[in-house]
Amino acid sequence: MSLNIAQPDRLLRALDTARAALLAERNAHGHWSGELSASALSTATAVTALALVGKNGGATVPAHALLIERGLGWLAQNRNTDGGWGDTTRSLSNISTTALCWAAFGAVLGADTKYSAVVHAAEEWLTARSSGTVGAPLDRDALARVIIARYGKDRTFSVPILTMCALAGRFGEGRAAWRHVIALPYELATLPHSWFAAVKLPVVSYALPALIAIGQARQFHRPTRNPITWLLRETTRTHTLRVLGKIQPPNGGFLEATPLTSFVTMSLAGSAQANHPVARKGVEFLAASARPDGSWPIDTNLATWVTTLSVNALAESGPMPENDAALIRDWLMTQQYRTLHPYTNAAPGGWAWTDLPGGVPDADDTAGALIALRNLGAINDVTREPAVAGAQWLLDLQNSDGGIPTFCRGWGHLPFDRSSPDLTAHALHAWAAWRDELPSELRARVHTAMARAVHYLDTQRGSAGEWIPLWFGNQHAPDDINPLYGTARVLHALAACNAPENIVRLDDAERWLCATQNADGGWGGAAGIASSIEETALAVDALAGCLAKGRPSEAMETALARGAMWLVERVESGVWREPAPIGFYFAKLWYFERLYPLIFTVGALGRAANLLGR
Known about the structure:
This protein is mainly alpha-helical. It contains 24 helices and 4 strands.
């Protein structure tokens, strides 16, 4: 079909501008590294970890004191006008990050006095959000209850936040300071990894380092009164520390994540282990990842992820030059894990989000890498071999419900470890891209897996046909969810599969997407939410994909044309480069990536241009 746009030349010029801008972002090695936003959450945890290591006799250097002071200065300068902090400089204040920043000032000697106005404003904000009173002293018990309630049964974030508050002295002194910190059964880390799903750990699979280190800190400060449990924890202490050392990456950064590495480091420092090798390497990672302005990012980089996203977006408007494609293809194949991963016991064949040693193979990045390999051309034995391994890896990750989790199959009960529509859709797209190139036996397995994945997606639709994702949230939408992202990604994948059995499942979602378009022509994360570059581009991309697969609809054509021109106007004015905060971990942790608006705009305008009939 041919898309009816009043000024098609403007769209093509905007596409050329966007493509050139994205290609110019490549690094010296020919791929993309991106740039993650500065994070108040990360900065607060890093400052506290460095401060507690020094306070408890750990190996420090004068530069660490400067990092601490710069970090506190950055926090003081980048709080919100209401006195609280969001995770990024563009995020709304939330109770978790504000509590962590408040604790960071308490962890550094003299900071409460030097930054008294900042600390007082934070306490007022926390008081209003935890006990509902204004002008009263902060009720620590109420604060702890609200933080625990925010995450429910999942202790992955609530316990580390409360642990940091206790270590920083915000909950008092001695044993009583730890009354709010729920004990973590770190002794379970001695069990075989294959048992973890059965014992139902209170944290997600990736948080094993926090389970061990925070569990030991709590046992150190407030040991259990049960003699059997006490004996078990004391006798497994050394063993679990060995496990912790074994899974720590060579650069010291667990998952390349500042918060996780900081929680581990401060917990060891706060339990008389400031000079433990894991703590020393943690300090080295934190010192190396600090930014010149005094901040820390949530993670070091998303190099593999943004590279695959960029390749796949650029492919919508034509192939890359072969020399460029070959360079990226070779680099991408070297990022595939070829051995059992020591952290999650993940089998060979997957990809992580980063090219750094703290990465862990996961479903979203493996799917993105497979699609990028297909889009980079040169289908031969060299490229088919990693594709076969990657497709197999996703097959082995599929849950019994037909959906795809993030890291580990079968854990089930916590967000990262249960199936989600956005990850399932991405895997479905990856399998579809390679199924005709796979050996016959594997092709048959992929066919069955795709049918199960489509069935899972069908069961996860909302009442209006929308899907709720795991990885992308919108801070202005109800409950921070982002049905626009989930629905757009599922539509994109189902259109890419081009299977007849998918047709009936698209109608409601397409109507939902058209109905949630804003009056200005753009989209936000849900109906009535202000339009953003990223979300408008994702919606345009999804609608263009559906139309390209022979699903004509006047409503979709009109919505697509309006959305495409909304993007064109932003490219022309130059505001299209401004990223919006993105929520992940069931929309309770926030970041933004500088390349996202560029990548999604290129993909959307490329798809729209393909429908112009040019």
